[in-house]
Amino acid sequence: MDCSVKLDWAHYGTIQARSLRYLLKDFALDFPRPWVWKAVLSAFLVWIAFEQFQRVNHGAHLGALTTVLVTLAGASVAVWVLWREYGRAAKLRGAQEAHSQFLAAAETSLDAFGLLESVRNNDGAIVDFRFRYVNANAERLIGLPRSELLGQTLCSVTPIRSTGSMFGRFCNVVETGEPLNEEFPVTYDSVNASWLRSQVVKLGDGLAVTFSDISEAKATQERYAHLAEFTDSVFQNAPFSIVATDTHGLITAMNVAAEKLTGYSREELVGKVPLTTLHDERELLGRALSLDPTATLEQFGFSVLTAGVAEGGIEEQEWTLIRKNGDRTPINLAMRAVTTDHGEVSGYVSIAFDITERRQMLDYVTHLATHDQLTGLAGRALLQDKTVQAVELARRYGTKVAVFVIDLDHFKRLNDSLGHAAGDQLLIEAARRLSRSVRSTDVVARVGGDEFVVVMPDITTVEDVEQCAANLVARLAPEISIEGHLVQLTASVGVCIYPEYASDAKHLLKRADSAMYAAKENGRNQYQIFSESMLQETAERLTMEHALRHALTNGELSVHYQPQISLNTGEVVGMEALLRWSHPKLGCISPEQFIPLAEETGLIVPIGEWAFMTACCDGKALQDELGMDLTMSVNLSPRQFQQKNLLYVVENSLRKSGLPPERLQIEITENMLMSNSEDILDKLQKMRELGVRISIDDFGTGFCSFSYLLQYQVDRLKIDQSFVKKAGTDANAAAVVRTIIAMSHGLNIKVVAEGVETEEQMRFLLRRKCDEAQGFFIAKPMAPEDFCDAVRACAERMTLRSIEPMANWVR
Fold it and tell me: What is the CA radius of gyration of the chain?
């Protein structure tokens, strides 16, 4: 029985063992955690043991007791096993969690990270390092995937060699445990970085290596270094002075230009003296007092320089710099505050440059703007300011101011005759004489072509004024030698006195000008002191000027014509157009009054254009009515010759009127020829190309040479009426007339005598074989509607086929 029991037990044990193996296999498949299936196995073995024991002993009580004991023991073992396995599981979970955290940190790191283990030889020396782990950034840095890196040695897959200095430093970290931190440039093309920062620490018998790509930071640092170098280069090599100070004004830096400007070296100023040391103390104190009457230089000196800078702007002013040698230099100083990132002022930067040349240029430009370029005298604007100042001072101190307006007599004629260069010399000499005739405190100005003004302050009596005026006239009287010519220069002087005849500077100048015109009207070469009676004359002049401005539009102007006869045949061969003005209130105004006024005001231009067109149209109409070829003579003033559209006016008048160009004769003064202007010569030449004839009016009154007649191709000369009137009684005048006629005929130029008023004058002209004549003895100027009757009446008196009437005059 015991044998069977043993067999059964053994057989059963075999079956149980097989069942256990399959069961464990199933549990191993279903429970991946080892402590679970270990606890189940322990409980199952205890159950089998007790079941066998119960069968062998067949004792109920003993079996129960034994079952309880075994169950308790098995339970204790199972609890112990379960507790142990639970602890191991907890440690495993912690390790797995730490591993996961490590992987997460390593993979998300912006740096390249890797774990290396030492590879030693038989002697224990490190011969290489093997990759155990690399993160993604390490892959990108080295340029290889981790599958090609893990398990490989460092020297086989990277440019690092075992003989290199970096490998030696890695070995030193393993041997000594001292961490390695360094930055180094990368010279290997296989590494995707130009600069790296390494952090190497010992980890077991290996290394934990972190490489940070600092290429961009190094590039930025290099850019900042270049920028700092460039900034310093700009600072040092700037062409203007740059000085930096702290908030109290102490100089902290200065460039080379600042050394040159101040005359000090950096060692003498930087960190030792304030910026105010370089400035004029009186200038600083004066501006400080303007801000605060109680200011002192020590308290407000630097504040004056930086006023307005604290608000973030730039304070730019002109100051006086005191150089090391004591020289005073005007500078332009710009101050700007240097602020921190928080907006706090940490210092100031001043930029300065020498403005001596600019001051000189400004003075020069100001002088040009306020002074006459030809004579160097004060100009109109400066004269006005000086006169106002003189009047204000005279009002304050109860003194007088005298203003003298000086106009050179007949300067225009001299200028046209001798040329502009000679005219300029005359003006310069006149200015020099005037300057020498007055005190240094007096003002001498040139306000027009030949008009000067002298302002004399601190005058006490009217007698002093008269003496000064007479002195000015006398000083200008002596002859002046100009280009070999002795020229007699005279002047008309008008004087007005403050406060007797004017209450302010404006009226003082205006009334002195009126007095000057009175001196001219009284014969020139004298002075006139303004009086109340001149106010009426001034008012009349203003009234005439105002009326003249409306005369053309109001139809008050007309053109009259004076016949010109041939002294060979006695017939009318032409006419001269003469302007007339009939005002409804002022009556008939003499051309001698309104023509100069028209030229002075510029009204001669529109009036002249109208008169030119009217003369051409009337000339054509009179020719057609009389059936005769008459020449129309029209005067052109120098002002009209300045018109840019003068040729258009002539062409347009001829075209609209239908007057043949050869029947139009333009009269100019000989003074215009003397100007020798290319513009005038060109206009005259183009007029001749149109077919228009050229005549010289008032010939003999200027300095015109006969060479000019050849140059300008003149057709006719008109002897001035002053010679014609004196020819019968004055031998010199008669000689002038004879010479003009003889020389003109020699040049094939016809001569016209104007102003013939007596039979005696006519007989003289006939004896001298003058070609044509006009004057009151022949006919007065008349309206166009009366001209035809006058011509017919003349034809009835004189037979066209006979010159007997002329011969009778000769006998």
Answer: 61
3-state secondary structure 107-172: HHCCCEEEEEEEEECCCCCEEEEEEEEECHHHHHHHCCCHHHCCCCEHHHHCCCCCCCHHHHHHHH
CA–chain centroid gap for 236, Å, is 29
d(CA 721, CA 740): 13
Q: How far apart are CA 372 and CA 452, in angstroms?
A: 11
Q: Are the beta carbons of 115 and 205 closer than 8 angstroms? A: no
**Nearest alpha carbon to residue 466 among 498, 495, 508:** 495
Over residues 765-792, the pLDDT tens digits come to: 999 899 999 999 888 999 999 999 888 8
Count of other CB atoms within 10 angstroms of residue 377: 24
Judge contact between 525 and 490, C-beta under 8 A: yes
Contact 252, 274 (CB under 8 A): no
For 191, which DSSP code? Answer: S
Q: Tell me: the pLDDT tens digits for 527-551? A: 999 987 777 777 777 888 889 888 8
For the record, the structure tokens of 373 come out as 């370029």
Which 3 state secondary structure label does DSSP give 782?
strand
CA distance 656 to 449: 38
The rounded distance, in Å, linking the Cα atoms of 143 and 136 is: 10
Beta strand pairing call for 345-354 and 328-339: antiparallel
Q: Tell me which residue has tokens 């140059």.
A: 711
Task: List the end-to-end C-alpha distance of the chain, in Å, as a whole number.
Answer: 212
Is the Cβ–Cβ distance between 717 and 695 less than 8 Å? yes
Distance of CA 290 to the CA centre of its chain: 33
767, β-bridge pairs: none
Q: For 98-151, what is each residue's pLDDT tens digit?
A: 777 777 777 777 888 889 999 999 888 999 999 999 998 888 888 889 888 898
- Measured CA to CA, the distance from residue 591 to residue 597 in angstroms comes to 10
| 401 class by beta-carbon count within 10 Å (0-12 exposed, 13-18 middle, 19+ buried) | buried
Compute the distance between CA of residue 641 and CA of residue 681 in angstroms, rounded to an integer: 11
**Cα angle 491-492-496, degrees, rounded to a multiple of 5:** 135
